[in-house]
Specification:
Layout lengths: L1 H5 L8 H8 L5 H14 L9 H15 L12 H16 L9 H16 L3 H12 L3 H20 L15 E4 L4 E4 L25 E5 L7 H25 L2 H18 L10 E4 L2
Antiparallel strand pairs: 1-2, 2-3, 3-4
Helix pairs in contact: 4-5, 4-6, 6-7, 6-8
Length: 281
């Protein structure tokens, strides 16, 4: 129907060819029957103004009356800006709550909301358009509220380009009958032992984590094995982040620093076994 209304006769495709090339799955008789239903609904008047027509009119008036309307959007031409508004209009027309308004009211509400974001003197121009369209201000205010709420749900549903940062727990303590398994993160380099030398405090440099396991009975072996599996999962997670951001060189530098810290710890006399690095960023 749109092609028959707008295009020239020689450019209108044959119905059988259109049904075949569009892969719509309908026969020619079914398409003719649906055309008849649409024409009955429109009272055979295919030149009725649509919300899109009013959107084009109001947008053209706004741009001509306020040339500074698109100054805050230097990368968009008037036609590109109109294309963005057209997508928003199609989204609003799919809402049953907004179909109660006339097409001119819906288009003016969208243009008014857009002007409010772009120029400070949007209200006088909105009143001017409202007077030209001969509409009531109370209906426009109500329509603006519904359109703003509907468009806000559209923006919140768009996927975000988020970056997630993994932050491990600061302290992890697992106790058993005769041993302690601790994670001691810190920003101060070098080891620090308590006075009684019974619970060594092991600081962590940067994002590297060192674990120290006190001598424990066989009852802690199951817990240690479980913790080791979790450490391997964390290592895999770190490796994935390094591959994503190409930080292999940075990890080598941090690894050399951590190796220096371990070499320093060899000079400290302690009954505890030497510390081993678990993961290096």
């Amino acid at each position: 129907l749109a092609a028959e209304t707008v295009e020239e006769d020689e450019r209108i495709p044959v119905l059988k060819v259109l049904a075949r090339d569009s892969f719509c799955g309908c026969s020619s008789s079914e398409i003719l029957r649906m055309e008849r239903i649409i024409l009955d609904k429109l009272n055979w008047d295919l030149h009725t103004a649509t919300p899109l027509d009013f959107l084009h009119i109001f947008h053209a008036i706004a741009v001509s009356a306020r040339p500074q309307l698109l100054f805050s959007l230097p990368k968009l031409s008037p036609s590109q800006h109109l294309s963005v508004l057209t997508k928003q209009l199609l989204h609003c027309m799919a809402c049953n709550q907004l179909l109660q308004f006339k097409g001119s009211m819906l288009a003016l509400a969208m243009v008014s909301l857009e002007m409010e974001k772009l120029i400070p003197d949007w209200l006088p121009l909105t009143i001017e358009l409202l007077q030209k369209a001969q509409m009531e201000s109370s209906q426009l205010i109500h329509c603006r509220e519904l359109v703003a709420h509907h468009l806000s749900t559209l923006q919140s549903s768009l996927p975000l380009n988020s970056v997630y940062v993994y932050r491990p727990l600061k302290h992890t303590l697992v106790t058993c009958d005769k041993g302690v398994f601790r994670l001691h993160p810190s920003s101060v380099p070098g080891p620090d032992f308590s006075k009684d030398n019974s619970k060594p405090e092991v600081p962590v440099r940067g994002t590297a984590a060192f674990y120290h396991h006190l001598p424990a009975a066989g009852g802690c072996k199951h817990t240690s094995a479980k913790r080791k599996v979790e450490e391997m999962e964390v290592d895999d997670f770190y490796d994935g982040i390094k591959r994503l951001y190409n930080e292999d060189n940075a990890s080598e530098n941090v690894g050399s620093v951590c190796g220096t810290d371990l070499s320093r710890q060899e000079g400290h006399p302690s009954p505890c076994p030497p510390l081993q690095p678990v993961s290096v960023m």
